[in-house]
Amino acid sequence: MSTQTATPEAPPPVQMLNVQVDGVWMQFPKGTRLIEACSQANKFVPRYCYHPKLSSPGNCRMCLVEMGMPRMTPDRQPELGPDGRPLINWIPRPQISCAQDVAEGMAVRTDSPMVQEARKGVMEFLLINHPLDCPICDQAGECRLQEFSVEYGNAKSRFLDHKVKKPKNVVLGPRVTLDDERCILCSRCVRFMKEVAHDDVLGFTERGSHNTLSCYPGKQLDSNYSLNTVDICPVGALTSTDFRFKMRVWFLQETKSFCTSCATGCNTTISARQGVVYRQTPRENNDVNEVWMCDHGRLNFHYLHSPERLTAGPIVKVLAQDEDEPTWSSAIAKAASALKTYRGEQIALIASGRNTNEELYLLSRLARTLGCTQYDIIPHIDLGDEILLSEDRNPNTAGARLLGLTGETPGANLKGIAEGVRSGKIRALLVFGEDATQAGLSEADLKKLDLLIVANLLPDATTKVADFIFPSAGFAEKRGSMINKKGRLQRLNRAIEPPGHARDDWEIVRDLILACGGGNGVHSIEDVFRQMAADTPALAGLSLSKIGDLGVPLQLS
Amino acid sequence: MIFANVDREGYTPDIECYLRHGGYEDLRKATTMEPDAIVNDVKASGLRGRGGAGFPCGVKWGFIRRGGPKPTYLICNADESEPGTFKDRYIIHQDPHQLIEGMVISSFALDVHLAYIYIRGEFPEGARILERAIAEAKEKGFLGKNILGTGFDLEIYVHRGAGAYICGEETGLIESLEGKRAYPRIKPPYFPAVLGLYQCPTIVNNVETLCHVKHIVQMGGAEYAKLGRPNNTGTRILCVSGDVQRPGYFEVEVGSLTMGEVINDLCGGLKPGRKLKAIIPGGSSAKVLRADERYKVKEKAEDGSMVDKEIGIEEIRMDFDTLAAVGSMAGSGGVIVMDDTRDMVWTLNNLNEFYAHESCGQCTPCREGSLWMRKITDRILAGGGTEQDPDTLKSVADNIAGKTICAFGEACSWPTQSFVIKFREEFASRSTKPLPLPTPPEFLADRLSEEPTKALTTGSHH
Fold this sequence. Notes:
The complex is a heterodimer. Chain A is built from 15 helices and 23 strands. Chain A has helices spanning about 35-40, 115-130, 145-150, 190-195, 225-230, 295-300, 330-340, 355-370, 395-400, 415-425, 445, 460-465, 505-515, 525-535, 545; strands at about 15-20, 25-30, 65-70, 90, 95, 105-110, 170, 175-180, 200-205, 210-215, 240, 255-260, 265-275, 275-280, 315, 345-350, 375, 430, 450-455, 470, 480-485, 490, 550-555. The longest helix of chain B is centred in the last third of the chain and has 18 residues, at about 365-380. Chain B contains 20 helices and 13 strands. In chain B, strand 9 and strand 10 form a beta hairpin.
């Protein structure tokens, strides 16, 4: 999917077709869907069932437009009007715009009386059996039914009879809850599960107005991609069991980010309010994740708000009797003076493939300052799939490799470090964002160390025996960049502040470098990136702002 | 012709009987012909589809290109389920080999080697008879490998539906045959002749249509075209039901009879003392014709010019073009006669019930509209009609027609449109109450659950 390699021969010229949109002749490349052509012409056509990444069933009938083709003379030539353009034969009944491509001479009216009447009719039909529970519906505020009601619907209902009753609160799977009465039967979820998730478990039962979305008997919607059905549901029928009834969506502040749960780096939107992340949803990036993400990554943010979270400020285990509670500067100074008592070969560093490039770059500088030559990251490997989930659960293995914190085989140095700790050759260990007991070291091994410095979010076996604990920031709480498995440099943005006294990791490392007598010139994350880019050919010419919302492909050797 | 052997004394559906009566002779003749010549004969015959739409069969066949990279399939649509229609079942029950012969000839002409008979689930006996007939035909070499020594192979399989009207819609039928829910496909792009069964070119023809092919081969297309009237050729089977003395099925030359002749000469007239009120001329989906209305048609004068003429209902000629000209359709040939004892609101409600039950629910207007129309006529019948109901009914139907994936949208809205327009006074007189106060149904749900329509109206007086 990488775009950096330019093909030597020019691509074949795209045939441009003349299409009339609301009276204006325009050109579109051959193969453009009519509904997309209308959008490109700034004539948005409302739709429910159509989704650009799925097949087009044409079932909602919301995208009906008036369509025509050139009027032909007996010898099959288009008849031309005084303006030299073809005269149009308008089809007397409205046509769906989602299932056909533009054609030469095609004409479309997106807002004629015929179209307005058709849309009004469809809107009325969709609403007669729809429950009026918008006040408690999770979709409210981002509901296409609400939006198009305002734009194309009737203010008054003519429906005097009883609405169709259907199942409510249906547990479709471990993460998705369905309200069948809200469902408008657009079949987006059915098609997604079949065409993208390759787990064809959804379908319709019953007939006519009683049609009901359900799972095949004996199956459940438990795919690792199930929550995408909630994203593409245009109404409040499919809801995330995790998110439902938690927050009105219009209060949520959205931050563009990407998922740090594996090396794919699906682009995301983090939705938060007042320091709390409520949900993570995929953001379109056709070079990475199209518009999807897996449930595992999507829901992997709750640990940010764990009650166990290290928020109370730095912890220094060995304090003199009369010493005050440490501040960040006193703790850093103490840690640095302790570190300085060891020779380089007595110090080891365990970094993380979850660290940002900026953090990893500074860590490598810290290692250099200390003369430390034994460092690596801890690989995290689990089952992947053919869709998005990578077996490399570290989001930034490529970054760690590029910045020299690990080699071709991540974790290759861990064995040597563990042996060094056990034999007593290594006296001091720095651990950033990892639990060292996952690197072949036991708690007892760690106790043998003179000095153990840890920066992390949550307490674990390593923090239990550490001498210094620096509470650090999670992926939604900081800025920085990572490189995904395809070599794409992507940017994290801060959605919420780190809780309590927790601090951005890069600042912790920068202060340690300073306190250990290393160089300076780093006042902001932009400065870190600038220095890193100057030292790293693959990042030459880049800056954090140049990464943009969609990332940039790197040329990695 | 088609019904020559139906109800014939001593005629049995086995192959021996069929052969004694000249069976499979037309297949022998066909196999000596060039396939294209058969197609041309069908074109020349002017045969129009007998399933309901009346699409010219030769034109449909003309979409098929022989020797393409994909196989071509032939499907016989035996999902006869249009209310008022009961012709195909008699062919299947009493003369199944006529159909099989028609299918073998059609397959030979279209280079088809695999054909299906999609028969509705409610015809279990018909399915058994067809299975037996297919086995007999195979044994005698009229089916299977190397048919009649020509090197032409054909297998026919019977597939039973599971009981849904929509399976008679040709693309819904194809989906069903593929093992899926019978949701009709969007056209474009899924025209069966191009992207049909398993995305291969496919011809779907009605039972009666395929039987006609056998007779076209026998007579020659030009000779066949002399039957009936120009553009309305051949014979067709009328299924007459309702308020006539002798309802039943009658094979007539297309357009040879008027509506009056059908009622009076074929069916023994109306019941004593009754007056004709309305006729649905082509199956339940066809628009109703009112008996006391005058209809404008164009007729060919002596000098060959077309002249406008105003006629009464009994003078309407039973052919495709005339019925279309008076605002209805010949459809599937199901003629439903109603006399003055019939309540038009009840009648429409009966039809609405059918369509609300049979809507597949794939696309919005038909799914929601068909049930809404039924609910309104339900309520009017129960005495809860409001002044707005006739207009609402009509406008709901208008919002369905022409906006759906398949022709079911028209099928379910045409009855409502035509009944409400033509019998406006009957609907208006039953829909006199002012609009009810907007009582939230859920507020009264428990009280209303037994008899919702009544409770709604008692709460509505003000």
